[in-house]
Specification:
- The chain is built from 2 helices and 16 strands.
- The strands form 4 sheets. Strands 4, 6, 7, 8, 11, 14 and 16 form a 7-stranded antiparallel sheet that branches.
- The protein is mainly β.
- 42% of the residues are buried.
- The chain is globular and about 45 Å long.
Length: 252
């Protein structure tokens, strides 16, 4: 005899997301740089095994799906020890995009402990985590945000975090200059803006390697050339946060 569901209770399933659409952009990031400014180490609890790769962004792809863009973030490792509904527990991705006049140079909410290049203020913010109630948002410089027109999922087999965004928020013209700030943190439901804290020494639930309280909570930052991330993220202290420069492209 077979039960349709154990004990008659509902089952929560996270099915792999099938990718569709024409690739318009692919940006690679160096492997093995999930160490922030070069000093960060993983928390020590077994939930963070294998203690590498979970925050190591390898590439970001953007696919054109007609009415939507699909952002695909590939990581070195992906696990779901806490049963996040979107299929991934650890990765927290923040994407800030500069594609028009105006914008902000501080983060949408206090958490990441970084600032942005004054010459490239952001116009659109995407927040991605495994819990839809706070990890499936699109935000704006006026401080408002919404879950409308954004869907977060994953493909654990390929270690991919996936965000689908309605083009009503972002639809640049061919050749238009578009600049990206792509931040990866360790997701913490109780952390500032859901970023996991970084201390001087790693503990069961915090990362280690911070020099002082101004240290960024960013574990990986998208930049194709090696060494640039570490240089930017290490410039903090004395009450100042690290100032990030965006990676800019001509939109295909």
């Amino acid at each position: 005899m077979l039960d349709t569901a154990p004990n008659g209770a509902p089952l929560a399933l996270s099915l792999p997301q099938r990718l569709a659409g024409k690739e318009v952009l692919r940006l690679a990031d160096p492997a093995g740089d999930d160490h922030g400014p070069g000093t960060y180490t993983y928390p020590k609890d077994n939930a963070f095994a294998p203690f590498k790769g979970l925050f190591d962004l390898l590439e970001m792809r953007i696919l054109d799906g007609g009415d939507t863009w699909t952002f695909v973030f590939t990581f070195g490792e992906m696990t779901n020890p806490w049963g996040a509904p979107a299929g991934f527990s650890h990765q927290l991705v923040n994407v800030y995009i500069d594609f028009k006049e105006g914008g902000r140079t501080d983060t949408f909410a206090k958490g990441a402990k970084v600032a942005f290049d004054p010459e490239h203020p952001w116009d659109l913010f995407l927040k991605v985590a495994g819990w839809p109630q706070y990890g499936q948002r699109v935000g704006f410089p006026d401080g408002t945000d919404t879950a409308d027109g954004v869907v977060v999922s994953s493909n654990p087999a390929d270690k991919q975090v996936i965000l689908q965004l309605d083009k009503k928020y972002f639809n640049p013209a061919p050749g238009q200059r578009v600049c990206f700030y792509v931040l990866v943190g360790s997701q913490d439901g109780y952390g500032p803006d859901h970023f996991r804290p970084v201390g001087k020494e790693a503990g069961p639930w915090n990362l280690g390697g911070a020099q002082n309280e101004d240290a960024p909570l960013v574990v990986d930052y998208l930049w194709p050339e090696k060494g640039v991330q570490e240089a930017m993220l290490s410039r903090y202290g004395g009450g100042r946060h690290a100032v990030l420069k965006p990676y800019c492209v001509a939109w295909p």
